[in-house]
């Protein structure tokens, strides 16, 4: 292990801190007027997110947190993190990445994977006091970090140890039974949402006045206590509605509503449709084994009973449908953990499984034990044909035909609008991974950008299987009018992108000089389905209407 690190001595629930040492690897200060978006990304380091000013949501792994005052957020190696933070004036966040080393047989080993990361249990949301001291330490660390003086850089490591000590001390104090009274009330709501709860009861649990409880709950969690309770009940109701013999009256009683008609009104206000309509859509226990199947089912207005969900790899479906989909399959890196998914399906007992047919024989054999399976031809059919085949199997052909008619009308309008903006400009989709550039042209891009929208490609996609390596010199020679960037959200790639975007060769590109570089994300651009393609059309219209999102990719020297 190079450089200096210090051992912190304090007991931990999982692994003694006497055997650990810590080293800060990087610190960034993210500042922006208004909203700031941190793209979902996979980390192989421990990450601390310290929000100095702002509110919003963060997702660590598959757990979503509302940003609270006086809290820090920790992500372990092998997990993903991201979110959106807003402020009335200036959003300000410190992002710290650090390594944890464990002492074994007279040497230190870096704990780099998810299993090791969980042994050092600094993860999730941690309330910290005094928080002002924490932000002051972040400011000092950031100031010392890039110093030309190695002694000052050493000082940044020393200061980081102090920051880490405060966080660990606060966590230890709270875990030893001194949890904030407000948290006790919220925890009671989480567990006993079905009781006839009142503000007076909850305030009594928190040992504060009802008026102060109402104000403090809204200020701390960004939602009123009553709205939070309603949200809990409606989400539980959605889960109960997936049961084949569930009755509306019984569901209302189980979640705390004595009057089923009152419950129906609350549900429609919250969800947008009546419980009866929602239950009719949910009753079919259809498992979408792959993400594109989820996209096809949603186009048919069918919410799958089981589907792959993850805040990074299926970001849209996770955000919009995680409370609607009863069984969450693992979406980690395109089905790498398929065996655990089959185990989940065996327990869930869906009526039918729909999958693409690009599985190996062992996976198909094990999947056949779950339920009847309908395979959609993946290579032989295009997405429109796949949608119609799915609809035919489910008896929803009319729904598919109606959807395609509406889509074609939408495409015609979008094509005219976008072409009017871009004229005959040439487009290139550039994928950046690690320290490499690739021309990228998958089936979605070919079908939607260059067929449906009839945009001009700077590269002959017919000669491209999917990716082709390209040097910066080759990119300069090609010199497309507009660039769509698909940047892999992991640390080595983001570090390379920071360097590349301020290099002279990159700045010489016509698209860069004319401010015609646009960021796109893997979701929906890498998914081949009806729902994903409709969202690509929406994104293209948004890109050229001035609605270009502010992203963490715009960083330079730790600032946004």
UniProtKB/TrEMBL annotation:
<dbReference type="InterPro" id="IPR002491">
    <property type="entry name" value="ABC_transptr_periplasmic_BD"/>
</dbReference>
<keyword id="KW-0805">Transcription regulation</keyword>
<feature type="domain" description="Fe/B12 periplasmic-binding">
    <location>
        <begin position="285"/>
        <end position="548"/>
    </location>
</feature>
<keyword id="KW-0238">DNA-binding</keyword>
<protein>
    <submittedName>
        <fullName>AraC family transcriptional regulator</fullName>
    </submittedName>
</protein>
<dbReference type="InterPro" id="IPR018062">
    <property type="entry name" value="HTH_AraC-typ_CS"/>
</dbReference>
<dbReference type="InterPro" id="IPR018060">
    <property type="entry name" value="HTH_AraC"/>
</dbReference>
<dbReference type="Pfam" id="PF12833">
    <property type="entry name" value="HTH_18"/>
</dbReference>
<dbReference type="InterPro" id="IPR009057">
    <property type="entry name" value="Homeodomain-like_sf"/>
</dbReference>
<dbReference type="InterPro" id="IPR020449">
    <property type="entry name" value="Tscrpt_reg_AraC-type_HTH"/>
</dbReference>
<dbReference type="Pfam" id="PF01497">
    <property type="entry name" value="Peripla_BP_2"/>
</dbReference>
<feature type="domain" description="HTH araC/xylS-type">
    <location>
        <begin position="183"/>
        <end position="281"/>
    </location>
</feature>
<keyword id="KW-0804">Transcription</keyword>
């Amino acid at each position: 292990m190079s450089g200096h690190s210090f051992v912190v001595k304090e007991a931990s629930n999982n692994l003694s801190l006497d055997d650990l040492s810590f080293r800060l690897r990087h610190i960034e200060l993210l500042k922006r007027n208004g909203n700031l978006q941190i793209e979902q990304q996979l980390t192989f380091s421990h990450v601390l997110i310290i929000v100095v000013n702002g509110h919003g949501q963060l997702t660590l792994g598959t757990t979503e947190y509302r940003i609270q005052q006086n809290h820090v957020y920790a992500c372990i190696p092998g997990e993903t993190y991201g979110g959106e933070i807003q402020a009335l004036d200036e959003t300000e966040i410190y992002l710290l990445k650090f390594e944890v080393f464990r002492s074994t047989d007279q040497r230190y080993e870096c704990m780099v994977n998810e299993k090791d990361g969980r042994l050092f249990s600094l993860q999730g949301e941690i309330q910290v006091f005094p928080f002002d001291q924490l932000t002051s330490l972040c400011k000092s660390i950031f100031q010392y970090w890039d110093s030309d003086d190695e002694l000052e850089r050493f000082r940044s490591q020393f200061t980081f140890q102090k920051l880490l000590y405060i966080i660990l001390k606060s966590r230890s104090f709270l875990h030893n039974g001194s949890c904030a009274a407000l948290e006790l009330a919220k925890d009671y709501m989480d567990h006993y949402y079905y009781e006839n709860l009142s503000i007076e009861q909850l305030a009594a649990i928190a040992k504060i006045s009802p008026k102060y409880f109402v104000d403090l709950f809204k200020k701390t969690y960004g939602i009123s206590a009553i709205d939070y309770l309603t949200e809990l009940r409606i989400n539980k109701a959605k889960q109960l509605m997936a049961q084949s013999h569930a009755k509306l009256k019984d569901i209302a009683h189980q979640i705390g509503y004595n009057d089923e008609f009152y419950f129906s009104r609350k549900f429609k206000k919250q969800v947008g449709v009546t419980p009866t309509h929602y239950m009719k859509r949910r009753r079919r226990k259809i498992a979408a084994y792959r993400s594109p199947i989820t996209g096809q089912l949603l186009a048919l207005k069918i919410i799958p009973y089981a589907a792959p969900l993850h805040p990074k790899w299926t970001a849209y479906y996770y955000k919009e449908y995680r409370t609607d989909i009863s069984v969450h399959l693992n979406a980690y890196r395109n089905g790498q953990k398929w065996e655990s998914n089959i185990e989940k399906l065996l327990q869930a007992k869906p009526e039918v499984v729909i999958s693409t047919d690009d599985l190996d024989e062992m996976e198909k054999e094990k999947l056949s034990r779950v339920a009847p399976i309908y395979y959609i031809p993946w290579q032989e059919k295009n997405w429109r044909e796949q949608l119609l085949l799915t609809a035919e199997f489910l008896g929803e052909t009319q729904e598919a035909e109606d959807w395609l008619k509406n889509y074609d009308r939408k495409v015609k309008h979008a094509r005219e609008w976008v072409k009017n903006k871009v004229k005959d400009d040439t487009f290139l989709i550039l994928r950046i991974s690690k320290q490499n550039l690739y021309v990228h042209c998958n089936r979605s891009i070919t079908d939607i950008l260059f067929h449906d929208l009839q945009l001009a490609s700077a590269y002959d996609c017919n000669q491209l299987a999917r990716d082709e390596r390209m040097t910066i010199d080759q990119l300069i020679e090609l010199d497309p009018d507009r660039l769509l960037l698909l940047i892999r959200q992991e640390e080595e790639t983001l570090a390379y992108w920071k360097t590349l975007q301020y290099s002279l060769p990159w700045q010489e590109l016509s698209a860069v000089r004319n401010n015609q570089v646009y960021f796109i994300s893997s979701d929906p651009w890498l998914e081949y389905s009806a729902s994903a393609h409709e969202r690509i059309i929406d994104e293209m219209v948004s890109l050229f209407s001035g609605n270009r999102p502010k992203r963490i990719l715009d960083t330079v020297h730790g600032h946004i």
